[in-house]
Specification:
With 487 residues, chain A is of the alpha/beta class. Chain A has helices at 6-9, 17-25, 28-50, 55-71, 73-86, 97-111, 122-126, 129-135, 145-152, 169-183, 195-212, 238-244, 265-276, 309-314, 329-333, 335-340, 351-362, 379-383, 390-405, 412-425, 427-444, 458-461, 474-482; strands at residues 90-94, 115-118, 139-142, 215-218, 222-224, 229-234, 248-254, 258-259, 284-289, 299-305, 449-450, 466-467. In chain A, strand 5 and strand 6 form a beta hairpin. The longest helix of chain A is centred in the first third of the chain and has 23 residues, at 28-50. Classes of the chains: A alpha/beta (487), B alpha/beta (246). Strand 9 of chain A pairs antiparallel with strand 10 of chain B, so a sheet runs across the interface. Chain A: Residues 321-388 form the 4Fe-4S ferredoxin-type domain.
Chain lengths: 487, 246
């Protein structure tokens, strides 16, 4: 079972970003799947965002609501707890992943059931809930189509919104044909790779589970502190099935998801669907407040999850990442994500937001390469509906990553920087270094590109291709061409 | 120490930069966004936008005739009718069987019903959304979820312009479902497929009071009429910046 915060958030045994990215970039099929998907969704998002003339004002309000919610997080959580309790729900507090898993497992065990249906939830992935439930002998069924694809394939999600974005239709068809039977109703004979046929197979496979299973686990997109209303935003109706049919509902929610008031939803329900799927509104949004006699689960539990969020809150620059509403717009616009895919980030949270969230939630020592997995182009900041300045946080975390490595013995990077500082200090040393560099560069380059450098510099060049140094330096050229002018 | 105290203690420790004079109810946020992006013809806009999601939308004075036509078109035999649905809107004669939810229908009965017919609490024009609040004529949430066909009747005066107007009118303490078109997924190569788990067909009938001029009855036609009206007249800069006290 998951122990520390980092255990399930960062995938153990996965290579660091630079190594994983090298493999991913060489995978032509993956790149084609990703390119097609991100381009489609980018185009849709920008069309739908442009439809609202006050898009910037909505972003400004959303950012202000979120930031103010975070500045008084303790008060809002206490308000939320009181409102949910008054409406018939039970609130639990979990300081870390292990505690959240213990709470949920205990609640399921208390019902006497051995199965749960799940709504797609980043928070439960982050804490490794399915694995924890399995250890306790409880089977968790993912019901979102993409999550089902990931679960059947014993795979990992590669995108926040469309976790199976790395798979194309024929791969999914093969997976359904080979694996559905082990989890319940098998795929129909002669299943084609038409998306409608695949969706139909998923509908039939999951329907008997929806009608049978008595306990559901969900995440939450928002929770309003004043009314205790919890919101889940979805498309397929699997969320409604889980939130409506079972007797018991357990919702695991990161503490940062609280909104001060129900009225704030008017901003987020305009921004979220347009930013994530490029729709004016997602097909289904469920809003519930505690329990209602004769309608839906009569036993409702809300688990408030810290798991590194308070540590993130402590950093006055980094805390803005907690405003994230998991729309995934930043993934779809990121040139790095488009080429490497989500798995390279080695975390439940991929892409630009993952690069700032994962190192903060898990501790920077568990994901030191992620703040560098960006070109700092700023497209993510422009796309973010809550105006998280991801480049600012990336640069801030890079400094923290470097600082965390500072010890009594200087690192190779620190020594190189020191040497560079000495070299740049006088014209003579610079001239000498340039001469050596130009000569060495010409000897080592192939077709004008330096791919690997010798000795200790190899570490640096492993993740970078560098143009070979020019034959002559600018200063040499200046001396040569301006001598006649009396210099 | 309980985990509640641990988490709250960590939060307070993390927020030492927030001055004591600042409290959650004194903070203000800028609200310069528009209350609505709809134009005057909210009914026409609602019909256009709901049709965008491949819901079938019709507009009528005669609700009973529209419902009867829909029942026939879809050959409905066993139809769930929630308590409080107006009897005068139901087909008077025919081959269909009315399923009442009193006592509550089991999930198997709902799953095998051929459809459900409901009213709604509100509808939102800009997003083409139906708001269900489990009130009279709508029933509990499962009724509009398990049958494969949903026919929803919207009175024209229930249509509001945009999301903020709708949320200000609904009671958050009720179980709420916002429905924008039939169930859909884009999980496979981002290609939209209608109908995964919710009703795969959603029909909407907009009921106009007698004597009201409806323009034309088809959303396609309503769309053709609209371009003369700018969808978003003015800009946000024309509105004063409101600051909402919290």
């Amino acid at each position: 079972m998951s122990g520390t915060t980092a255990d399930s958030l960062v995938w153990l045994g996965t290579p660091s970003f630079p190594e994983a990215a090298r493999t991913a970039v060489a995978d032509g099929r993956l790149r084609a799947n990703l390119r097609g998907a991100t381009r489609t969704i980018r185009a849709r998002r920008s069309t739908l965002a442009a439809e609202l003339s006050d898009w910037e004002e909505l972003r400004t309000s959303a950012a202000a609501v979120k930031r103010n919610a975070l500045r008084h997080l303790d008060t809002h959580l206490i308000r939320l707890e009181a409102a949910v309790t008054a409406a018939g729900g039970t609130v639990h507090w979990a300081a870390d992943a292990a505690e959240a898993n213990r709470i949920v497992t205990g609640l399921v065990a208390a019902t006497g059931e051995r199965e749960v249906v799940k709504v797609k939830s980043m928070a439960t992935q982050e804490i490794g809930l399915n694995e924890a439930l399995a250890t306790a002998g409880i089977r968790a069924y993912e019901t979102d189509l993409a999550e089902l694809i990931v679960q059947l394939g014993d795979d990992r999600p590669s995108h926040i919104l469309v976790p199976a974005i790395h798979k194309n239709r024929s791969e999914i068809r093969d997976l359904f044909r080979d694996s559905m039977a082990a989890w319940g109703r098998p795929a129909p004979e002669g299943l084609s790779d038409d998306p409608a046929a695949l969706a139909e197979a998923a509908r039939r496979h999951l329907r008997e589970k929806f009608l049978r299973v008595k306990v559901a686990v969900s995440g939450a997109n928002f929770a309003a502190a004043d009314t205790g209303t919890v919101a889940v935003v979805e498309s397929e109706g699997n969320g409604r099935m889980c939130l409506t049919l079972p007797d018991t509902l357990i919702t695991v929610m990161g503490i940062e998801k609280v909104l001060p008031s129900f009225a704030d939803l008017e901003v987020f329900l305009q921004l979220l669907p347009r930013s994530s799927t490029g729709e004016r509104m997602n097909p289904y949004t469920s809003l519930w407040t505690g329990t209602t006699d004769g309608d839906g689960p009569q036993d409702f539990h809300l688990v408030l999850l810290d798991n590194g969020r308070t540590a993130t809150l402590r950093d006055t620059v980094g805390r803005q990442a907690l405003a994230c509403i998991r729309c995934s717009a930043c993934l779809n616009v990121c040139p790095v994500y488009e080429r490497t895919g989500g798995h390279s980030y080695g975390s439940v949270y991929p892409g630009p937001i993952g690069a700032v969230l994962t190192p903060q939630l898990a501790g920077i020592e568990h994901a030191p390469s992620l703040p560098f997995a960006s070109t700092l182009c700023g497209a993510c900041y422009d796309a973010c509906p809550v105006k998280i300045d991801i480049p600012e946080v990336l640069v801030h975390l890079r400094a923290r990553a470097v600082d965390s490595k500072r010890g009594p013995v200087p690192t190779a990077e620190a020594l190189v920087m020191k040497a560079a500082a000495a070299t740049l200090a006088t014209p003579h040393t610079l001239t000498a270094a340039q001469w050596v560099g130009a000569l060495g560069g010409r000897l080592l380059s192939r077709q004008g590109v330096l791919r690997s450098l010798p000795g200790p510099l190899a570490h640096w060049s492993r993740t970078r291709d560098t143009p070979a140094p020019a034959r002559g330096t600018f200063r040499a050229w200046w001396r040569r061409t301006h001598r006649q002018e009396g210099r | 120490m309980s985990s509640r105290e641990t988490v709250l203690g960590r939060i307070r420790e993390a927020l030492t930069d927030v001055p004591d004079t600042e409290t959650h109810d004194t903070v203000t946020v800028p609200c310069a966004y528009r209350d609505s992006h709809a134009d005057a013809d909210v009914t026409g806009l609602f019909m256009e936008r709901a049709a965008d999601y491949r819901a079938t939308v019709t507009r009528t004075h005669d609700a009973r005739a529209a419902v009867t036509a829909a029942f026939e078109r879809h050959a409905l035999t066993r139809v769930v009718v929630p308590a409080g649905f107006p009897d005068e809107w139901l087909p008077s004669a025919g081959t269909w069987q009315r399923l009442c939810d009193e006592p509550p229908l089991g999930v198997q009965e709902l799953d095998t019903a051929s459809g459900v017919v409901t009213t709604c609490a509100l509808a939102i024009a800009v997003t083409g959304t139906l708001v269900l609040d489990a009130g009279a004529g709508q029933g509990r949430r499962a009724l509009t979820l398990l049958p494969d066909y949903h026919l929803c009747l919207v009175r024209a005066d229930q249509i509001v312009g945009d999301v903020p107007e709708a949320l200000r009118r609904i009671d958050p303490r009720r179980p709420l479902t916002l429905v924008s078109g039939p169930s859909a997924t884009s999980d496979i190569e981002l290609q939209r497929v209608e109908g995964v788990h919710g009703p795969r067909t959603l029909d909407i009938v907009v009921v106009e009071p007698e004597g009201q001029d409806m323009g034309c009855a088809e959303p396609k036609c309503a769309r053709a009429e609209r371009p003369t009206v700018p969808l978003f007249p003015g800009g946000p800069q024309e509105r004063p910046v409101r600051t909402r006290p919290r």
